[in-house]
Design brief:
Mean pLDDT: 92
Low-confidence stretches: none
Radius of gyration: 17 Å
Strand content: 5-15%
CATH superfamily of the largest domain: P-loop containing nucleotide triphosphate hydrolases
Number of helices: 8
Length: 200
């Protein structure tokens, strides 16, 4: 089975792209959703996260992602610490889900994850990479308008991530999401055709 990474900075529209792939019949493994499951009640990373960051990140005994985010997005060392706790379990689960799709006979799967291609080399288990590009100011606007966070928080989250443009060297496909939804969908549909080997 062909495993294709999908990445892009926060606010780039990566989730919209993922949804289009799914609608087109290519299954998507959402690493961000798995990450949320790991710190939700009963999640495998809950105890380690609370032990590392303290009970001040809790609301009603449950990890409050807004409180946790306020800590890690303002402190690069705290973000690294959180990633070191969550990522091993996250990518183990990504592997399990990819294996299930392979067993079901799927020819390709998209792994939607913001933190792909963060190291000096592309992950060895990826066959291809898709990078969603979008200007930083437009990303800020989208985060403020559609996610309801403050401009300061939006800029802080963008600054906490590796510059998505540095990942372009590994990209099989680049998607420009500075235009409208129709233009975005057209780019995704072209990639779907290429993945299926039907591009003209």
């Amino acid at each position: 089975m062909h495993i294709i990474g999908l990445t892009g900075g926060t606010g780039s529209g990566k989730s919209t792209v993922a949804s289009r792939f799914e609608t087109s019949g290519i299954p998507v493994v959402d690493a961000d959703a798995i990450g949320h499951e790991l710190i939700a009640p009963g999640g495998a990373a809950v105890d380690a996260v609370v032990q590392s960051f303290g009970e001040n990140i809790l609301t009603g005994g449950i990890i409050d992602r807004a409180k946790l985010g306020a800590v890690v997005f303002s402190d690069p060392e705290a973000l690294r610490q959180l990633n070191n706790i969550v990522h091993p379990a996250l990518f183990t689960e990504v592997g399990h889900r990819c294996a299930k799709y392979a067993a079901a006979g799927e020819a390709a799967v998209i792994v939607d994850a913001a933190l792909l291609a963060e190291g000096p080399e592309l992950e060895a288990w990826l066959d291809d990479l898709i990078v969603v590009e979008c200007p930083a100011e437009l990303r800020v606007h989208r985060l403020v308008s559609f996610r309801g966070i403050s401009e300061t928080d939006a800029r802080q989250r963008i600054a906490a991530q590796k510059d998505p443009a540095t990942k372009n060297v590994w990209a099989t496909w680049l998607i420009d999401n500075s235009g409208n939804l129709e233009a975005l969908n057209a780019q995704v549909d072209k990639i779907v055709s290429e993945i299926h080997g039907t591009a003209s």
